[in-house]
């Protein structure tokens, strides 16, 4: 699947048409084998596929349509597609491959076709479904309304109404205001969602490109932008998809962590200083906010911090050295630097091994993975997520889900 990995504004494809690139036996296994799809490896039933067969590949993090009887076999897994480690055979399986022939309504689609929406596949994590959806949070105006009437909206009858679509609309008639409607994301800002190396394995074949490597942080994507409008500048604070109107706008956290970071590092003042000095029309700074009460706080931090990983000025994306220098000058933290002039290994096994390791934020915890950016082209980049991190996080989520169900 030849993803355009330069386009950081596309949404992740959770289900797509692919070919079985290779099939290898699993020592000691009589009924299953390992299939290679792009750079992914997943378990299949023996003789289910031949090399070159087309399939629908469902990536990890997918929640398939439970109303579709073709996915009934996933009922015990709550229709979720996850990373699995089969300790008996010492293999890791990621994703799900199903024959294209099982989906006759799709026809004979070409390899690379995204069928996520056609098959009604979404993220299995409820927060991810909202946070990573293509558009703004549909509940943003209701959250803003609730934030202005905190005491009232803590009451049980109101909370009951807020859990129902018609109830939210009814409450908005009485308590909503025009200013509750969120502002639009600045049109010149590109979303941050690096493609996984498993979806662009051909990059491993190019031995001439050298890469800057940084640590991938597990938090919430945060964007600050500045746009010249006449004699003034418009400053915007954004999550991945939603412009945060003000410090009181409710988000996915106990408080608005995006504005908290803007205030903590005096972002607006620093962007203005730079923009006025160099007569900048548009610019944006992107990074990850991590720490207390964010994504389960995997770094065990008692505070929240922002770490920049991207700076775009009038359409030009800064290289890593330029970004780091800019951050040092304006006293804004940046993501941990791992390597410069890095040469990619020639195979996926070694590539995945590189992602493993401890975090430079907190050496007592696993890092989420690495991000690679080409030294000669700042727009060419991808991520390499640690399988150990995924398995540990998944185990934690399952434990919490089990606990919530018992309560």
Structure summary:
With 407 residues, this protein is α+β, with helices and mostly antiparallel strands. Helix content is 23%, strand content 26%. It folds into three domains: 15-124, OB fold (Dihydrolipoamide Acetyltransferase, E2P); 129-184, no CATH class; 197-395, D-amino Acid Aminotransferase, Chain A, domain 1 (2-Layer Sandwich).
Mean pLDDT: 89
Shape: globular
CATH fold call of the largest domain: D-amino Acid Aminotransferase, Chain A, domain 1
What separation lies between the terminal Cα atoms?
43 Å
Per CATH, the architecture of the largest domain is 2-Layer Sandwich
How many separate domains make up the residues?
3
Category from helices, strands and their pairing? alpha+beta
Cα-atom radius of gyration? 23 Å
Helix amount, in percent?
Answer: 10-25%
Strand order of the largest sheet: 14-13-15-16-17
The CATH homologous superfamily of the largest domain corresponds to: DNA ligase/mRNA capping enzyme
The major sheet is characterized as: 5 strands, antiparallel
Number of strands: 20
- Give, in order, the helices and strands: EEEEEEEEEEEHHHHEEEHHEEEHEHEEH
Strand content: 25-35%
Q: Multimeric state of these chains? A: single chain
Number of helices: 9
pLDDT < 50 stretches: 1-9
**What's the CATH first level of the largest domain?**
Alpha Beta
